[in-house]
Amino acid sequence: MDTREMPGSRNTQVTIQCQGCGAGIVLDVEETMSARCPWCREFLSIEQQMPHGAVTDAVLPFLLTREEAQAKIAEFVHARRRFAVSAFKREFTPENVMGVYLPYLVMDAKTHCRFSGPAGDIIAEHRSENTNYFDVDFYDISREFDMTVSGLTIEASSKKRAVDVQRNTLNIINAILPFDVENCVPYDGRYLKGFCAERRDTNIDELKWLAGAQLHDIAQSQANGMSEKYAVDAIENVKEVYINEKHRAAVEKSRNRPGLLRYNIRWDEQSVDLAGAQWKSAYLPVWLYSYFNRKGGKHMLHYIAVNGRTGETMGSVPFDAGKRNLLTLLVLVAFAFLWWLLVFGRLYFNDGLTGADIEASLDAGFKLTVPFLIGGVVLWLICRFAIGGRYRNERERHFYETETPIEVSNVQKTDLRSSSVAACRVPYVRGVNSFEIHDPRVPRILSEKTAAFLSAMMPDEASEILRRI
Ligand SMILES: [Zn+2]
Fold first, then answer.
1. Is 0.85 surpassed by the pTM of this model?
2. How far is the CA of 303 from the centre of ligand 1 (A)?
3. 350 CA distance to ligand 1 centroid (A)?
4. 247 CA from centroid of ligand 1 (Å)
5. Where are the chain's structural domains?
6. How far is the C-alpha of 69 from the C-alpha of 306, rounded, in Å?
7. pLDDT tens digits for 9-46?
């Protein structure tokens, strides 16, 4: 590791290891005599110095002021106060926000990409005995192009790169990317005044595989975008047909996230050849609010992060499931009471009823039972799953595959029709993979089980023709 002194440091910059979370924090001791860790708010002791991390080439200065960042954070929390953990709300102090320069490696790359494989164009849908059938034209397609990527940005602190939504909330910090890295200036230690920085502990060689995976995803997203004909939800009459609930959820999710599950294509050949790459290391500015939540034996560090350039804000607010469960219970009790009132209520509040009236009334009432049960289940599902998603924000990440600036040239496309299949049950190419993401830190859009199920259901093009129309 390069331990050269950072330019402009004038020997007043030290790197301290936080005793709370182990992070390496770079501080200007001339400026700050006592400081706290921006990650876990532990007090940092000058006694715990460690070697400087690798040198940094560039820095992107803060644009957003502390006051602006505080306002963003307060607004974010305000919108999530209802089901937040009480202790979090009590202790919420937006003034504690800290300005941190986080280390990143930034890559510019020139690539040559080639994607090819079978694709399905769904041309019609038929309904028979409550089942949908599809007429599909299958094609062999290829997409070949040159792609230049600028400013692909990857965390250069191994601890912050370890995004894992089951174990930590680091996806929050990933989600406020991208930065306008083209506006970086040469590194100068004076930018650190009033802020702190995290030590860079990663070199380019350790990140090549991850950059490769992300380049692959960017290229695949482009190849998908060049294949609109095979976009599944671009076809009006197939829009509301889903194989199962998970599939439906994935398609809906993908509506606003181009490049995930919209294309009926199996890319058999996927090659992204690197023709040239340039790397630089940069400190990028983040306003960070952290909160350490303890619950029983479990604990989790929650962050609210604000991009110090664009103001983009994302966070994880500790969620109180007890409050949600109580609300769910109250809603269901009120709902059950309404049912009781409709079925039996009339008998209580009306003395002049004859036996036949009572029977007719009960009959009408019991007819309501099934719709009410269904309604109850729907209400429960809404309460259980709709509340809370905006607190932890597990699905948030940097959608690098569509958010990274690129230029594409020399596009060559071919589409050769291979077969037409009438009335297939599942209108997909077997083994459709156009939505797969190669960065292993991204939660799978479909679970392994659903993917296997989808794959098994897909017809072997011409072999499974069901003549049902
Ligand atoms: Zn710490």
1. no
2. 13
3. 69
4. 41
5. 13-104+154-203+282-322, 107-151+207-279+391-464, 324-387
6. 6
7. 456 788 999 988 888 999 887 766 668 898 888 888 88
